[in-house]
Amino acid sequence: MSEKPLDESVSASLEAPKMKTTGLPEVDDGGPPQYATSNDFEPLTPIQSFEMNQSLLEDAIPDRPLIAPLVPMAALRAEYEGGSQVFVKQIDWLTEHGYAGIRRTRGDGDCFYRSLAFAWIGRIMLSKDTPLAVMSAISVLEASQPLLEAAGFQRMVFEDFYDCLVSLINEIITPERDGRLLTPAILLEAFNSPEVSNSIVVYLRLLTSAKIRADPDEYAAFLFHPEIGEPMEVRDFCESFVEAVGKEADHVQMTALTKALKVNVSVAYLDGHVHGEEGKVDFVQFKNVEDSTIDPVVLLYRPGHYDILDQRSEDALDV
Amino acid sequence: MASSRTAVNRLMKEYKQLTSQGAPDGMFTAGPISESDMFAWEALIMGPKDTPFEGGVFAAKLTFPHDYPLSPFKMKFEPPLFHPNSEFYPDGTVCISILHAPGDDPTMYESASERWSPVQSVEKVILSVISMLAEPNLESGANIDCCKLYRDNKAEYERIVRQSVREQLGL
């Protein structure tokens, strides 16, 4: 990857003036591009349409780091200054309520899982009782393995992904072979290594699926095809919209995963709606533990995309 | 290369599992062509019973990406198969949905299910290829002549398949 994360705020503000006609937030996430009716493709061979599709997909995914460094909220505000004032007010509201920074994630459909994993590990590192937070996280993950096996996933399929996540969390308190502990900079680097980052995303996807499969009565009523809106069978839903990499998470997946990880998550909805108090932002809470040793993870939702909110406006420097 | 350690681990495990337990009903064998390169495999697939492919042995090359199993592998019959489905390209490449990541949709009309995910494996993919050999799906037929033949003159279709099987066996 050749991203220069430091240019993030600059490029963001340069993008601001274009395509503001609708006043909707510009979120560059999104599943596969939409196509015209299949008739348009009849003259194409499967190989041609495959190549066309690939190039469309590549255009749709901007060249952005998987997880970017923290930037001040002003960078996000700059994107909306030429557009809807409701969004600008909501961003100001968040800033006034203590959210000084935003950490962007790549809009590749995995942003919820990646944001949650990164922010969760970040919270563990900042815990008042880090060793306890590490041990609770690891015991939750250990207990998740039988859940995955019960859902029918072979150990062979998930153990490498599991090891990747657990060893990263372990590094917070147990030095690696080279004697170093996990620092914010190493965490950021790890999450920008596609192998590590995607392995963790895959584990969380399998865990989400296993949780839904383990408790079908709890989730079955909420499993709908995200495009067609038809009810779906648990298995079809999990295979198509949970386990499959690049598929957006919706409320069901978020509920299942935060419950499986026993983590409290709070999601700020930047939706451009006016709710009474000017610019007020609604938060959706996923509360799964009382007296957690870590602060809740806070994510920012804009239609189709999740980023991470933070009280700090820039990353701490490694000492 | 750090980015392929997971891939090598996983391929070793799949290989061990295939060699120790074997494929269901001995329907295929698969493994690395050379122990020095875990990313290039060969599979030998037995023609399914009660189909015109019965008695044939079909060789396919499997090529794994360095981020396997996050990304799927590629599969190519060498020599190519005579089969009505679009999933079997004339050059032998196998293009079934399970070998494509979600969103990467070469034919546009595939349902979102049975896509590649790290939950899939060499064994699962080859088993779906075998089931497709046994029951061609005319809905997705690209080899139009072959489809017509299958529909209108099944005896002739079966004769051609059997003949190609014999040719491959060198008879």
From TrEMBL, chain A:
List the catalytic activities from the record.
Thiol-dependent hydrolysis of ester, thioester, amide, peptide and isopeptide bonds formed by the C-terminal Gly of ubiquitin (a 76-residue protein attached to proteins as an intracellular targeting signal)
Keyword Repeat on entry: no
Extract one GO molecular function annotation from the record.
cysteine-type deubiquitinase activity
Q: What is its EC number?
A: 3.4.19.12
BP GO annotations: protein K48-linked deubiquitination; proteolysis
SUPFAM superfamilies reported for this sequence: Cysteine proteinases
Q: Where is this region: Disordered?
A: 1-40
Question: What Pfam families does this protein map onto?
Answer: Peptidase_C65 (PF10275)
Keywords for this protein: Hydrolase, Protease, Thiol protease, Ubl conjugation pathway
Q: What are the GO cellular component annotations?
A: nucleus
Report the superkingdom from the record.
Answer: Eukaryota
Q: PANTHER family in the record, alphabetically?
A: UBIQUITIN THIOESTERASE OTUBAIN-LIKE (PTHR12931:SF15), UBIQUITIN THIOLESTERASE PROTEIN OTUB (PTHR12931)
This one is known as ubiquitinyl hydrolase 1
**Species, as recorded:** Daedalea quercina L-15889
From TrEMBL, chain B:
| Top-level taxon of origin | Eukaryota
> Which PROSITE patterns does the entry mention?
UBC_2 (PS50127)
CDD domains the UniProt entry points to: UBCc_UBE2G2
Q: Which residues form the signal peptide?
A: none
Q: Name one Pfam family in it.
A: UQ_con
Q: Which UniProt keywords apply?
A: ATP-binding, Nucleotide-binding, Thioester bond, Transferase, Ubl conjugation pathway
Q: Which SMART domains match?
A: UBCc (SM00212)
Q: Per the UniProt record, which EC number(s) apply here?
A: 2.3.2.23
* InterPro entries xrefs: Ub_conjugating_enzyme, UBC, UBQ-conjugating_enzyme/RWD
Provide the reaction this enzyme catalyses.
S-ubiquitinyl-[E1 ubiquitin-activating enzyme]-L-cysteine + [E2 ubiquitin-conjugating enzyme]-L-cysteine = [E1 ubiquitin-activating enzyme]-L-cysteine + S-ubiquitinyl-[E2 ubiquitin-conjugating enzyme]-L-cysteine
Gene Ontology molecular-function annotations? ATP binding; ubiquitin conjugating enzyme activity
The segment(s) forming the UBC core domain are: 6-170
Residue intervals passing through the bilayer: none
What protein name applies here?
A: E2 ubiquitin-conjugating enzyme
